[in-house]
């Protein structure tokens, strides 16, 4: 299975980089996982709705440039479907079973994701009704994908 995490913005915090590297190392036993960073669009503090849409559109173009036609796209959205760890594991297992070997998880920028990316999405999931920094979401997502592989293989992992 080939998993891409397409994320807006550069990761700066050392502690997040270390955590992400740890989970990428752990996941290497189960899948090929890569992180694709796309530049976030510079935006003023107080934007109109039209300006916000334009920022999301530009970030969306960058996101979509990293997603091939044969990729199953899962977007992380505040209004997406909430899943348990077991349900995410089951979804990953189902995708593998039905030949969807390329999966892309998309983490948008601070304004969310564009309409174009939402249209390309095969599934929208939410980790919480709370808002998290998109850099932190990379680490949380990697941990949950790793947990999903452990669940699917019946291997022990702390609860």
Automatic annotation (TrEMBL):
The record ties this protein, via CDD domains, to: RlmH-like
- UniProt main location, coarse: cytoplasm
EC class name: transferase
User: According to the UniProt entry, what is the EC number of this protein?
Assistant: 2.1.1.177
Gene3D superfamilies referenced in this protein's UniProt entry, alphabetically: 3.40.1280.10
Which molecular function terms from Gene Ontology are attached? rRNA (pseudouridine-N3-)-methyltransferase activity
The residues listed in the UniProt record as binding S-adenosyl-L-methionine, with positions renumbered to this chain, are 76, 108, 127-132
Which superkingdom is the protein from? Bacteria
Output the InterPro entries linked to this UniProt entry: Alpha/beta_knot_MTases, RlmH-like, tRNA_m1G_MTases_N
Q: Where in the cell is it found?
A: Cytoplasm
Mind listing the UniProt keywords for this protein, alphabetically?
A: Cytoplasm, Methyltransferase, rRNA processing, S-adenosyl-L-methionine, Transferase
- Provide the reaction this enzyme catalyses: pseudouridine(1915) in 23S rRNA + S-adenosyl-L-methionine = N(3)-methylpseudouridine(1915) in 23S rRNA + S-adenosyl-L-homocysteine + H(+)
Q: Which Pfam families match?
A: SPOUT_MTase (PF02590)
* Function as written in the Swiss-Prot or TrEMBL entry: Specifically methylates the pseudouridine at position 1915 (m3Psi1915) in 23S rRNA.
HAMAP family, sorted: 23SrRNA_methyltr_H
Quaternary structure, per UniProt, is: Homodimer.
Q: What's the protein here called?
A: Ribosomal RNA large subunit methyltransferase H
